[in-house]
């Protein structure tokens, strides 16, 4: 027990110094050495006052007017009026409050930092018939890696031998164990529960999704959000009110002690601590459910969102489209269209591109790599194959090259058009189903206060309208380039606006939106890096869950601040009567601090109906 106490005060040295000063002062006071006790208390209070005054002056110079001025005034007035015990209780309140905040932050970030603590450093790699223990960073694509029970999967790969259950809860929020067998993909960072398995590495450690997730978590854990000083929005009126009540009490009675009695209970610890603790707790709860919130300000903004816009492919739909039909033109066969299209599309990570490649392989077509491939995001691809110039993409992209598209080649579904050496060769249409959870998610968004939903997509209007009708989306903006998507969200009626997407072409609009939400960390790295919030699990219902967490966190943060303000105002009125000593006010304010802090920690707990 003693070791724990020593360790605690080593971690919180300033609080330890304050406690030692109080104990020394108490001992001297009880021993009859009043003057010596007052000297020790006065010096200790003055030492702790210096950094507070300096910080306050720095803020004032930069035009910031926070509630710190009340705390500094209370300590300074206590020292001047020789109310040293009151001064020390206020100092304890400030330093102890910081310690409580640090404890609450560490508790709340437990889930947020869980991923970092399990990062594997070594792995068992099979090379030339021998099992080597290598650094994870030394694993290369194609290596065979043995994963024993209880070990963390070091890199992405597919199982080539063995069967086992895996825990992906820290990565995706999925609480159930997942049984994986030969041919199944493993996500780095998941835990092997039962049997030994061997995987073939599909990515190096640096390129594995787990490393991308770790970067997101580190960003979130290190963030110092503007939301932390949410209380400063109320600081000016609250500070003015406190000085008015204290000044009136002094003016009416002519007793400066009365001023101190009021200022002591106006010290702003509840305002300073309530909001950040609620925020960190909310971020941690989100992480526990597979939702990484990068900054506190993002969580605050999400809690105030009134419109949510969605990309279509991979967000509202399954994101695994298949080739529906192929139409040919100018003497090209359907086999030609698939062969030339796949040669280009194999260079693109887009889901439609992968569908073309899969269809070509299913037809037994040999895919030769195209050369000089260039991708115009949101338009299509251009390259060369066997001396021919190949273009594939949206109708607009093909028409820009002076190629006309006949009416009989048009499709109602999402379509890519193929041109070879300046001639139209044909078109490929795709089919993609709406996610089964989409409709339920949209219903929940309405329940949580979202006023408007819209779909912003690069697909043609006919396809977009059909998907929107199935899903229950109110407004459709179709045929969008990346820049058009930004324009679409800038012109919505109800703001702030969040955008949910998962593709490379969503990165610009994810950055431009008030809140960008990337769905599925296994998708586009560009989308994940551009977004404010990343949903690790490929589940669109998590959008509604993230909104619920954000709104509840914002509600509790504001509640904690207002609770602190109202309690302080009530105490100021009581202490203005002069019935209590300043030290009593400081002690009562400590109870207010604890009440506000524990209320803020509710943001980390289970959901309850807000009232």
Describe what you observe in this structure.
- There is one protein chain.
- With 611 residues, the chain is an alpha+beta fold.
- Among the domains are: 140-204, Calcium-transporting ATPase, cytoplasmic transduction domain A (Distorted Sandwich), CATH 2.70.150; 281-318 and 434-550, 3-Layer(aba) Sandwich (Rossmann fold); 322-431, 3-Layer(aba) Sandwich (Calcium-transporting ATPase, cytoplasmic domain N).
- It has 23 helices and 22 strands.
- The strands form four sheets. Strands 10-22-21-20-11-18-19 form a seven-stranded mixed beta sheet, with helices on both faces. Strands 2-1-3-9-4-7 form a six-stranded antiparallel beta sheet, with no helix packed on it. Strands 12-17-16-15-14-13 form a six-stranded antiparallel beta sheet.
- Helix 14 crosses helix 15, helix 17 (438-447) runs parallel beside helix 22 and helix 22 (541-575) runs antiparallel to helix 23.
- The longest helix is centred in the C-terminal third of the chain and has 35 residues, at 541-575.
- The radius of gyration is 31 Å and the shape is elongated.
- It starts with a helix and ends in an 11-residue tail after the last helix.
- The model is unreliable at 223-228 and 607-611 (pLDDT under 50).
């Amino acid at each position: 027990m003693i070791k724990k106490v020593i360790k605690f005060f080593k971690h919180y040295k300033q609080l330890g110094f304050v406690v030692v000063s109080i104990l020394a002062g108490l001992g001297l006071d009880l021993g009859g050495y009043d003057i010596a006790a007052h000297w020790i208390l006065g010096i200790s209070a003055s030492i702790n006052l210096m950094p507070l005054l300096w910080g306050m002056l720095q803020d004032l110079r930069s035009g910031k007017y926070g509630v710190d001025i009340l705390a500094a005034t209370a300590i300074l007035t206590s020292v001047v009026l020789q109310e040293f015990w009151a001064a020390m209780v206020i100092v304890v309140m400030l330093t102890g409050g910081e310690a409580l905040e640090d404890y609450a932050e560490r508790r709340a970030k437990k889930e947020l930092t869980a991923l970092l603590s399990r990062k594997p450093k070594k792995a068992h790699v099979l090379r030339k018939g021998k099992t080597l223990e290598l650094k994870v960073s030394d694993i290369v694509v194609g290596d065979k890696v043995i994963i024993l029970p209880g070990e963390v999967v070091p890199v992405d790969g597919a199982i080539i031998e063995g069967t086992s259950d895996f825990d992906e809860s820290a990565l995706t929020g999925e609480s159930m164990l997942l049984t994986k067998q030969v041919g199944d993909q493993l996500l780095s960072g998941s835990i092997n529960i039962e049997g030994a398995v061997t995987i073939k590495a599909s990515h190096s450690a640096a390129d594995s999704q787990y490393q991308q997730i770790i970067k997101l978590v580190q960003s979130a854990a290190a963030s110092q959000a503007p939301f932390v000083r949410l209380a400063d929005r109320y600081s000016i009126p609250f500070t003015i009110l406190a000085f008015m009540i204290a000044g009136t009490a002094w003016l009416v009675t002519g007793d400066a002690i009365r001023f101190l009695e009021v200022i002591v209970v106006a010290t702003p610890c509840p305002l300073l601590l309530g909001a950040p603790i609620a925020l960190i707790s909310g971020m941690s709860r989100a992480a526990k459910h597979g939702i990484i919130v990068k900054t506190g300000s993002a969580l605050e903004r999400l809690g105030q969102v009134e419109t949510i816009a969605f990309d279509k492919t991979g967000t509202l739909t399954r994101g695994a489209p298949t080739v529906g039909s192929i139409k040919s033109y100018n003497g090209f066969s359907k086999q030609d269209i698939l062969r030339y299209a796949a040669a280009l599309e194999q260079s693109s990570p887009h889901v439609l591109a992968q569908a073309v490649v899969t269809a070509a392989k299913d037809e037994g077509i040999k895919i030769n790599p195209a050369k000089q491939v260039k991708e115009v995001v949101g338009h299509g691809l251009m390259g060369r194959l066997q001396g021919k110039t190949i273009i594939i993409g949206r109708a607009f992209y093909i028409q820009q090259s002076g190629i006309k598209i006949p009416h009989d080649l048009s499709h109602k579904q999402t379509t890519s058009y193929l041109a070879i050496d300046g001639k139209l060769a044909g078109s490929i249409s795709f089919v993609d189903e709406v996610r089964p959870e989409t409709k339920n998610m949209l219903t929940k968004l309405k329940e949580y206060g979202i006023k408007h939903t819209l779909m912003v997509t690069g697909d043609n209007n006919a396809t977009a309208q059909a998907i929107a009708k199935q899903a229950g989306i109110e407004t459709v903006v179709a045929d969008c380039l990346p820049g058009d998507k930004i324009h679409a969200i800038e012109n919505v009626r109800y703001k702030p606006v969040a955008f949910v997407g998962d593709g490379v072409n969503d990165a610009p609009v994810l950055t431009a939106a008030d809140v960008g939400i990337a769905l599925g960390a296994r998708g586009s790295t560009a989308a994940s890096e551009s977004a404010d919030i990343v949903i690790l699990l490929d589940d669109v219902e998590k959008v509604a869950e993230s909104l619920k967490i954000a709104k509840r966190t914002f509600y509790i943060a504001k509640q904690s601040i207002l609770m602190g303000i109202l309690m302080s105002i009530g105490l100021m009125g009581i202490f203005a009567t002069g019935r209590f000593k300043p030290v009593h006010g400081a002690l009562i304010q400590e109870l207010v601090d604890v009440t506000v802090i524990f209320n803020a920690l509710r943001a980390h707990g289970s959901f309850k109906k807000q009232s």
